[in-house]
Amino acid sequence: MGQPTPEMQQRTTKLAELRVSAEDSLAQTAAEVAKDLLSFYKGEDPGWTFAIGILPGPPPDGDYFWWIGGAMWGTLLDYRQQTGDKQYDAIITRSLVEQSGEKKDFMPANWTATMGNDDQGFWAMTAMLAAETNFPPPARETGLDWLALVQAVFNEQSMQERRVNQPNSNCNGGLRWQAFSINNGFDYVNTISNGIYFNLGARLARYTGNDTYAEYAEKTYDLLERLKYIDAEGNVHDGAHLPENCLDVNKLQFSYNAAVLIQGAAFMYDITNQSQKWKDRLDLLVDRSLSVFFPQGVAIEYACEGVGSCNVDMRSFKGYLHRWVSQATVLAPHLKDKVMPVFESSARAGVAACDRGDNGQMCGFEWAQGGGAQSPKQTSAVHQMNVLGALTGLMMKEAEPPVTNATGGSSKGDAGGGNALPNLRAMKPITAADRAGAGILTSLVLAGFVGSCVWMSLN
Question: Which of 17, 124, 270, 305 could be joined to 301 by an S-S link, Cβ 3.0–4.6 Å?
């Protein structure tokens, strides 16, 4: 790797000196980080049409698994929403359409061999964000819309084929890590898969006004508490195995597990009219996460950082932590005073670590070491995503709440979508004219398959 030229060094100094507390500097810094993030993406390059929407991979041929692409577009959607920068709109749309799959459910056939419920769920979370920010829908001829894609994923993950269906098992009803029984990890019931499902249920409930989604979300959170994946102190653990009756709880704490639950809990807090129950759950998770993942006011991936064991996936978690918890403060403003000062100091440290690469301003991973010079000079798309997530999270201080059907949301839905529900495909799709009735239609659809959704019978 070449040494930075004086011109590059001057640009680096400019990036590092931009103040993350000033809105204009914040947006300018974020724009630089976003541009460098896209330098890792090859889907627009000649000869790379097979890679539209995804980063080079998966390992060992490249650095990134399929789901990281979905996470990247979500990061850029948050950046777009907070800055108004629309230059990446066409790339984002093309990517989401390309990876939506043959059944319009983010299950492209060429990725099924390694498909996790969390992988599919990450793409769905990005589509949900597109709906909540009124991101323009794809061209009509694609037959796609953001809300319908999310509903298809949620429907599929509600079916017993994806879940533990053993009434005498402690794991009963849990969403499995992997989508198919032939995949390694099908016997692992993990927090991120169930957490994303909870998150999507809470957000679909708020967007559509349908309480049935909220019921599914709450039952999922109750399950995570019962399995002690969320403990009484607010620690969020990684998961457990079906053969061990889900009693062998993996106590590793990864920041994205906590963050996805915090964001979902904020949506539940909002749709339950700031209920004490969800405030207590939300506050517990936030307080513990600030303690575990920001011990010195700077984000650290507690389970692996400092011991040299963070893989590429784990190196992406800080960005979600900043983005999702920041959005939680929009729906639960009482969190801002405790969250935002910590997130500002963390973002400063993240920008300070952007001192590497041939241009001298690519971002590093170990922010708490006081800058990139003290940590390995590795560059990565996920490092850029982390810093961009931290910067856009700070911009959410004054952000407006996500839109809903009732507040200007324009995304069209299909409550009967999803490959697991072939008998429901003949139902009339939701149109712009009857979008307000999505809650009623979805209630009917969900009621139609509740008998086969074993986890709904949990106490």
Answer: 305
